[in-house]
Design brief:
This protein has 498 residues and is mainly beta. The chain has two helices and 39 strands. The longest helix is centred in the last third of the chain and has 5 residues.
């Protein structure tokens, strides 16, 4: 699911949770040496030495490697030894770009020249690794404007297939590693037009598996959702909060059915939840039967009704964002019985960068999400939904120190700040730096695989410099850990659970 981050107004906060049973620490979790605010008692730490630049690769460049300096956009990590990169040389007009397989030491396994433009989609990359191939969406803007899907073998870069996607503009691309799904709209189609249709193309590492048409995406976007053996797509009238969800079979693209609901939904790939006129409902993707989780509800000590605004799945259990007038709260439900398990009051809060998807796509029970105050400052919200942990707010030390990116990671969250790679572990909520990087730029989820984060140099001649490759689970010195507060500071005092 593609989501906007959580936005929290700068206001008083109250935490009210029923603590969950004590859990044994995850072996891979780092010790809870949480960073704290810079105060006279806790002076800002000095910046430890940055990572040394890795040695330059010695391998010969493969045929077709460009000799000009350029930039890597994007980098798609495969494992801790290989990544696929798009390489662009800035120019004043149309120019080719290059697709390459980059090794950990900076050498290149192969290079392919791509004649068209990268078919960038909304909030997603046009490059995806699917099985033993890499596929890329290419847009041609010549006398015959069109989209084309091209795929190459990971082993040697040899072309696998080319598939036309028509005279369309790209909308969104999603992949789960074995199936890629591209949604595109005809050039003449207007988003939100009830008569418009969108094209869906599903492909594997060997070619296109099926094609289908769905109602044209709403203003909120198609939001393709993999859930079990199905894929759900969102469509609806322009700027409407109501949507039609069209569900297709993953194997062959045939329509399973449609549901009418709100534009908000959530899924972890196994469970799927929608908000309809009754409330928050669990959906069986095979039959589209629904089961009510909750309607408008009362919270302990806070009589309702509280309305449902959005949802997210945390560790297999649904979590709802609810509101009453200007007040907001997060409510966690039991994953089996859907009984209300705990809640966190947020007070008067404005959530979400968009009006459609206030919550992020993925969170742990220890929630960390980007936030924005009434004054427009970026923040991070930290709250333990189930364990009664105090809620904290973190901000960048200055405007340039943190841009709001939060990458969901199996051990917690990754924060690329101006000078550090900082983690927040899901067990303790501790903020700890993992590395000081001299050329750190914005990172994306595609640069993370397992515990390995790939960071390319900002500018380079392809094949002559190695990337910075960081093991997020590796032990680091206390000096590096404390460097989290070089770019981030704790705002105020944590709210205490009653």
């Amino acid at each position: 699911m593609r989501r906007g981050p959580l936005v929290l107004a700068s206001c008083g906060l109250v935490l009210a949770c029923r603590p969950e049973p004590t859990r044994a620490p995850t072996p891979a979790s780092p010790p809870p040496t949480a960073a704290r605010a810079t105060t006279p008692e806790h002076p800002q730490p000095s910046l430890p030495p940055a990572l040394a630049e890795p040695p330059a690769p010695k391998a010969a460049l493969p045929p077709g490697t460009p000799t000009e300096e350029g930039v890597i956009i994007p980098l798609v990590a495969i494992d801790d030894q290989r990544a696929v990169v798009g390489f662009h040389v800035p120019s004043g007009g149309p120019a080719p770009w290059w697709l390459a397989l980059l090794r950990r030491d900076g050498s290149l396994s192969w290079v392919q020249t791509i004649a068209g433009d990268m078919g960038n989609t909304e909030g997603s990359s046009s490059i995806e690794v699917v099985g033993d191939a890499v596929s890329v969406l290419v847009a041609y803007h010549d006398d015959d404007p069109r989209l084309e899907l091209q795929a190459f073998a990971l082993a040697d870069g040899k072309p696998r297939f080319q598939a036309p996607l028509g005279k369309n503009r790209p909308s969104i691309t999603v992949s789960d590693g074995t199936l890629r799904v591209d949604v595109s709209l005809p050039f003449e189609a207007r988003r939100g037009d009830p008569e418009a249709t969108a094209d869906v193309v599903a492909s594997s590492s060997t070619g296109v598996l099926w094609r289908a048409k769905i109602p044209g995406p709403s203003f909120a976007g198609p939001d393709p959702t993999f859930v079990g053996d199905a894929i759900a797509f969102r469509s609806g009238a322009d700027m409407s909060h109501q949507a039609t969800w069209t569900v297709l079979a993953r194997k062959h693209g045939k329509r399973i059915g449609q549901l009418q609901a709100r534009v908000q939904s959530c899924s972890d790939g196994t469970h799927w939840f929608l908000i309809d006129d009754e409330g928050l409902v669990a959906v069986d993707p095979k039959t589209l039967r629904t089961r009510l989780v909750t309607g408008p509800l009362d919270l302990p000590g806070l009589p309702g009704p509280w309305a449902l605004d959005d949802c997210v799945v945390a560790d297999g259990a649904p979590v709802a964002l609810v509101s009453r007038n200007d007040a907001k709260a997060l409510v966690a439900f039991d994953r089996e019985t859907f009984a209300l398990r705990s809640h966190v009051e947020l007070g008067r809060a404005s959530l979400g960068y968009t009006r459609f998807d206030p919550l992020p796509a993925h969170v742990h029970s220890m929630v960390l999400a980007p936030a924005m105050t009434d004054e427009g400052s970026r923040e991070l919200l930290l709250a333990d939904l189930l364990g009664g942990r105090p809620l904290e707010r973190w901000r960048g030390v200055d405007y340039l120190s943190f841009h709001g990116e939060v990458i969901h990671w199996r051990g917690g969250y990754v924060l690329p700040t101006n000078r550090t790679v900082t983690i927040v572990d899901a067990e303790h909520g501790a903020f700890e730096a993992r590395a000081i990087v001299p050329e750190l730029d914005a990172a994306t989820a595609q640069q993370l695989t397992g515990d390995t984060l790939w960071l390319p140099p900002k500018r380079l001649q392809l094949g002559t410099r190695a990337p910075y490759v960081i093991d997020l689970s590796a032990e680091v010195s206390d000096e590096v850990r404390r460097a989290a507060t070089v770019d981030l500071r704790l705002e105020g005092e944590p709210s205490k659970a009653p």
